[in-house]
Write a structure and sequence with these properties.
This protein has 312 residues and is of the alpha/beta class. The protein has helices at residues 40-51, 65-76, 124-127, 147-158, 176-183, 193-200, 205-214, 253-267, 271-285, 298-307, and strands at 2-7, 10-16, 32-38, 54-62, 80-87, 94-99, 105-110, 132-138, 162-167, 188-189, 219-223, 229-232, 237-240. The protein has a 9-stranded mixed beta sheet with strand order 5-4-1-8-9-10-11-12-13, sandwiched between helices. A 4-stranded mixed beta sheet has the order 3-2-6-7. Strand 6 and strand 7 (105-110) form a beta hairpin. It is globular.
Length: 312
């Protein structure tokens, strides 16, 4: 039982602490510069693999050092990378992350190979080996978002896969106009509450879920940060509180929540257990620096659930 994650792959270069950008032609020193994996497909894929779920990733990188770093790291995490395309005409997507002394972050982002990723890059012979296809990073893949995603989901459903979708913030403000053709083919939709508000132009989880289900989504799972999550199907409605923690770094917490949720689907758990487990994986992610450093095995996650109380 397994998940193939389709979407964005990013190399994150993190510098800290950064008080200000240096003047033109000048140099400032920082305490640390690190290279990390990033991008929704990578974050969710690594988290799934750490939990113990067989995972593959489909996406696009450049034939460069960042691309090699991403592929090597995924291999070390026991992830199938046979679906990752190397494009010699464009560089790997990357983000320069500047961490301010108070922990707040600023970003300089290069879309790179993610901007060229399209349905032609997806090998359906790889997809059909999996139980769930999860598209991670909608609104940041101009050649794959909208109709192309809908076509891939339609084919995947015909092959018997469960379809899952996670969005990013749409800075171009297309929202439902772009996503509408996809939703009829979505079994599980896991946006953040803020993204879902913009998509549906509604405020409450109940109103949001109703609209998404009217479009054809079977299971809506809203990521609500400190408020936990809200899950809705035609038969079930649940609000599951978050765990009480002192977060260190929220990077990747949403992607980790998704990994926890898809684990529950793979394992055949009921939605309450699935949502609680997803909340735990997201919380554990936020307890360490980096997008998936804090994620642990299935057994260790259950231990965390036993030892931590929820915000009621």
């Amino acid at each position: 039982m397994s998940v193939i994650c389709v979407g964005i792959l990013v190399a994150d270069v993190i510098a800290k602490p950064v008080e200000k950008l240096p003047e033109r032609g000048k140099l400032d020193l920082v305490d640390k510069i690190e290279l990390h994996t990033g991008g929704c497909a990578v974050n969710t894929g690594i988290a799934l693999s750490k939990i113990g779920i067989k995972t593959g990733i489909i996406g696009k990188v450049g034939n460069d050092g960042f691309g090699g770093f991403l592929i090597d790291t995924l291999k070390k995490n026991k992830i199938d990378v046979s679906g990752i395309v190397k494009d010699k005409n464009i560089n790997t997507s990357a983000t320069a992350v500047m961490v301010h002394p108070d922990g707040e972050r600023s970003f300089i982002h290069y879309l790179g190979a993610n901007s060229e990723f399209g349905e032609k890059d997806i090998d359906l012979n790889i997809v059909k080996k999996y139980k769930i296809i999860h598209v991670a990073g909608t609104f940041l893949m101009p050649k794959f978002d909208g109709e192309p995603t809908a076509r891939i989901f339609k084919k995947a459903k015909k092959m018997g896969l469960i379809t899952s979708l996670d969005t990013c913030w749409d800075s171009k403000n297309r929202w439902m106009k772009l996503l509408e053709p996809v939703l009829q083919y979505v079994d599980i939709f896991l946006p953040s509450i803020e993204e879902a508000k913009r998509l549906t132009e509604k405020e409450t989880p109940e109103e949001i879920a109703k609209i998404l289900m009217d479009y054809g989504v079977k299971t809506v799972g809203l990521k609500m940060g400190e408020k936990g999550c809200y899950i809705r199907t035609k038969d079930v409605q649940l609000s599951i509180p978050a765990f009480k923690i002192n977060p260190v770094d929220a990077t990747g917490a949403g992607d980790s929540f998704v990994a926890g949720f898809l684990t529950g689907i793979i394992k055949g758990w009921d939605l309450e257990k699935t949502g609680r487990f997803a909340n735990a994986v997201g919380a554990m992610c936020a307890l360490a620096i980096g997008a998936s450093q804090g994620v642990k095995s299935l057994k260790e996650t259950f231990k965390f659930i036993q030892n931590h109380t929820s915000n009621n």
